[in-house]
Structure formats: structure tokens, C-alpha cells
Write a structure and sequence with these properties.
The chain is α+β, with helices and mostly antiparallel strands. About 35% of the residues lie in helices and about 20% in strands. The chain is built from twelve helices and 16 strands. The strands form three sheets. Strands 9, 10, 11, 12, 13, 14, 15 and 16 form an eight-stranded mixed beta sheet that branches. InterPro entries: CAT-like_dom_sf, Condensation_dom. This is Condensation domain-containing protein.
Length: about 450
């Protein structure tokens, strides 16, 4: 960043004064991402994500932007909640904390904010490049980008313990309104205060939460007894250095094909892609049953739509690729079976990780081997582009605009195979000790060919 940068501390004071205790167990989403962070460290900056927000309306002074940021942190408890550990002096432990980490909500504090005139995208990359200090640092990093003495952009980087993609969008929506209205009080945001992570943690530990958890656990237990131990168990070529690589496929033809298939088969584009990825995983690995872990937003229950926290978790999707046939099922048959299987998977995503760990341990012992799919699917698009009728010639002509790049590599990841859907395209992040770089590229190109072929037929 610029040599002229400096840091300003913004004071905040939440509405929680007098509320006790200000600690609670981790929510299911927090615990799920925490376990993933632990397995990925020291490369856990992988889970940081952020946004560049262009200041709406008239450009604001640093003081006005600071006032809006303080109001944002005061409104959303997740942005002033840090990880804590038993043994800190003067703290009230949440029920059943034992020796486990828990969450601690701060009533007040100071948020450091970088003041800079550097390029906003470069600032975003720098703020996101290092892991968070989950105990000592606020779970939000902020920079104000200036043109002269006015703020043009606000750069925010979120710790994944505090927010997922949907939670971050809620925070951005509120900050945009606070900047536009210039009002620190309730007038700028007239919606009632959203559910807070501490409230959610207590609900999950109560009778309604336990009932939902038990239903999800039954699905994991049933399916773990029949799926392959893991989807990627043997090398397909030479490992790269570093071993974790991501390839990004930008393919207008694939997008058109998916929307066309969704139109004909009356399915969502997400289900079409999930099914196609599962089919190709079977082709690459030889497994007749594919087990994948799709990420679910988990925001369908009352009070969770507007909460800033991390709600997203893995569900368990299983698809029998043969479906009783001698030579493998058709893509039409697979799509028909995938609809209800995906619904069961997304329901199972709202689960207590402690139950999942218990189920995993039990089934490991029963089967005498470790059961870990290590195969993920994450549709990160905020809206399904929707089915649409497409001319086959339009789809095949678009193949000329396909491109593939390698935007990321690192030493360590908690998974072996992760497909992400974004507005930029379809990416595959994989451990090259189990899927080589040439095979990562081949998988994405075969996914395009598979879907284009299905659409034009």
C-alpha cells in the first residue's frame, strides 16, 4: 500500500451493556469453519474474503465514513465477536464449554482502519493475504481509500468465523445505507435488529435445535454406511509444488448449456452442475456411487435471513451413478435422481458438527477404515441465472470464447477436490497428489464437453 498510509482507531459501543453472559458456545456454522481452519493452518488465509464498496451518493469525509462503520459494528454482534478459550481471567464460561473454544461478544472497543490512497483492489488483496488472529483481532479488516480528503471506496475483509458470503452481503447492504443516509442512529436502517450469533448458539443448544440436529445426523449416519471411503484415493499423475492448485474455467458455452438443460429438464442450474460434476467424479475415479459435500447457505429458518454470521455448512449428497443399469445411467436419469438427493443433502447441512464427528468415528470403527469424501461443491452465486431455451448453434459457437487460467496455489487445504461456481466461471481447487494439474484441466474441459453435448442433443 501507499507510504502515506496511516491507521485510525474507530470507537464503537454496542447495545449489549448489562446483557450477561456475553459468551456462548460456537454456533454450528462457526464450529464447522473453525474445524476447517484448524486443518488448513497455516494457509487458513484461504478462507478470508472481502469486498470493495464504492461509496454511494456524495463522497464522504473520513469522519462520516468512520461514523457509518461504527454503526455497522454496533448493529451486528458478529463483527465484534472473537474466539475465546477457557482460562481467561474474569470470564463467564458458556454452558458445556469444557475445554472447547467459544465465542465472546465485546460490548465496546476500537476498530483499526487503514487510511490510504492506494488502488482499492490491491488494498483488498493485501488485507486478505494473512490469517486472522482469531482471539486477539476483530473479525473485520477495513480500509478507507481516499481521493484528496474524501472517501471513494471502503475495503472490507471478513474473517469466515464472523460471516459467510450471505452474511457479508447483509453487512455491505447496511453499510451502503449508512453511508448514503449519513445517520448513525436507527433512522438509516429501519429494519429491526437481526438475530445475533449468541442467540443462535443458544437456540441450537435448546430442544428445537437438538431435534433438527438429530434429523440431520440420521442422514449422515445412513449414508456414511454405504458410500466409498473417499472419492479420490490414488494419484493420477505427478504432484505439483506446492500441491494445492486452482484452475478457473471461463466458458460462455458451458453457462448456456447448463441453462438450456435446466430449461428442458425443469431443474435449477445448480442441480444440473452438481449432477454433472458427480457423474464426472465417478468417471474419473471409477466409483459407482458419488459422495459430495455441497455447501448450503442454511438461511431458510425463521430469523436467519438477515443474520451476519457464518451459517453455511457442508451437506452430504450421494448419487448412485449406475442406478441399476449395466452401463451406467443416462444424464436424464441422473438428473431425475439428483433432485431429491440434493434436497436431502441441503437439509443435512444444518447439522451439529459434534454429531457429525460422532457419526464419523462410529462408522469408521464399524467399517474398519476412514470415511472422508474429500469432495466438495460450492455454488457461490447469490442468484441462479435461471433456465432458458438456447439454440444449439449458439452454444457450440460460444466454445471459441472458452479460457482456462490458474489463479491460486498453496501448500495446504482440508480437502482434495473442491468445485466452486461463481459469476466468473467454474473453478476446481484440488490436491495434485490425488488429481494432477493436467487432470484438473482435463476435468474442467470434460465438464464443458459433457454439458455442451447433453444440451445440443
Amino acid at each position: 500500500m501507499s507510504v502515506a498510509d496511516h491507521t485510525l482507531d474507530i470507537e464503537f459501543a454496542g447495545p449489549d451493556s448489562g446483557a450477561a453472559p456475553l459468551t456462548a458456545p460456537l454456533t454450528w456454522g462457526q464450529r464447522a469453519i473453525w474445524e476447517t481452519i484448524v486443518r488448513t493452518a497455516p494457509d487458513d488465509h484461504y478462507f478470508n474474503f472481502g469486498h470493495v464498496l464504492k461509496v454511494p451518493g456524495p463522497r464522504r469525509t473520513v469522519a462520516e465514513a468512520s461514523t457509518a462503520l461504527a454503526a455497522l459494528v454496533e448493529r451486528h454482534g458478529a463483527l465484534r465477536t472473537r474466539l475465546s478459550e477457557p482460562g481467561l481471567p474474569g470470564e463467564v464460561l458458556p454452558d458445556k464449554a469444557g475445554g472447547e473454544p467459544y465465542q465472546r461478544l465485546a460490548e465496546r472497543g476500537r476498530l483499526p482502519v487503514v487510511i490510504t490512497d492506494d488502488d482499492p483492489d490491491r488494498v483488498l488483496d493485501e488485507l486478505a493475504a494473512r490469517p486472522f488472529d482469531y482471539v486477539g483481532e476483530w473479525p473485520l479488516r477495513v480500509a478507507l481509500v481516499l481521493d484528496g480528503d474524501r472517501v471513494t471506496h471502503v475495503v472490507l475483509v471478513f474473517c469466515h468465523l464472523a460471516a459467510d458470503g450471505f452474511g457479508a452481503e447483509i453487512a455491505l447492504r447496511d453499510l451502503r445505507m449508512l453511508l448514503l443516509r449519513g445517520d448513525r442512529g436507527g433512522g438509516a436502517i429501519r429494519r429491526p435488529g437481526a438475530l445475533q450469533p449468541l442467540d443462535l448458539a443458544r437456540w441450537q443448544a435448546g430442544p428445537e435445535g437438538r431435534k433438527a440436529a438429530e434429523t440431520a445426523a440420521a442422514h449422515w449416519e445412513r449414508e456414511f454406511r454405504r458410500i466409498p471411503p473417499t472419492m479420490f484415493s490414488a494419484p493420477t499423475g505427478s504432484a505439483a509444488d506446492p500441491p494445492i492448485w486452482r484452475a478457473l474455467l471461463r466458458s460462455p458455452a458451458l453457462e448456456l448449456a447448463v441453462r438450456s438443460i435446466a430449461h428442458v429438464r425443469r431443474a435449477s442450474t445448480s442441480t444440473v452442475l452438481l449432477t454433472a460434476v458427480a457423474a464426472l467424479v465417478g468417471r474419473f475415479t471409477g466409483h459407482e456411487t458419488c459422495a459430495m459435500l455441497p455447501i448450503s447457505a442454511n438461511r431458510v429458518r425463521r430469523g436467519t435471513a438477515d443474520i451476519v454470521t457464518t451459517m453455511s455448512q457442508e451437506g452430504l449428497f450421494t448419487l448412485d451413478l449406475d442406478l441399476g443399469g449395466a452401463g451406467g445411467a443416462s444424464f436424464t436419469d441422473l438428473l431425475r435422481a439428483a433432485g431429491p438427493a440434493a434436497l436431502r443433502a441441503y437439509r443435512s447441512a444444518y447439522h451439529d458438527p459434534a454429531d457429525r464427528n460422532r457419526v464419523t468415528t462410529t462408522i469408521d470403527l464399524e467399517r474398519g477404515e476412514s470415511i472422508r469424501p474429500y469432495c466438495c461443491f460450492n455454488d457461490m452465486r447469490f442468484a441462479d441465472p435461471g433456465p432458458v431455451a438456447c439454440d444449439p448453434d449458439e452454444i457450440t459457437t460460444a466454445l471459441a470464447r472458452t479460457s482456462l487460467s490458474w489463479p491460486m496455489s498453496q501448500e495446504k487445504l482440508n480437502c482434495r477436490f473442491c468445485v466452486h461456481l461463481t459469476v466468473d466461471g467454474v473453478s476446481l481447487t484440488a490436491d495434485t497428489r490425488y488429481l494432477s494439474r493436467p487432470d484438473i484441466e482435463r476435468f474442467l474441459l470434460e465438464l464443458e464437453s459433457f454439458l455442451v453435448g447433453a444440451a445440443v442433443r
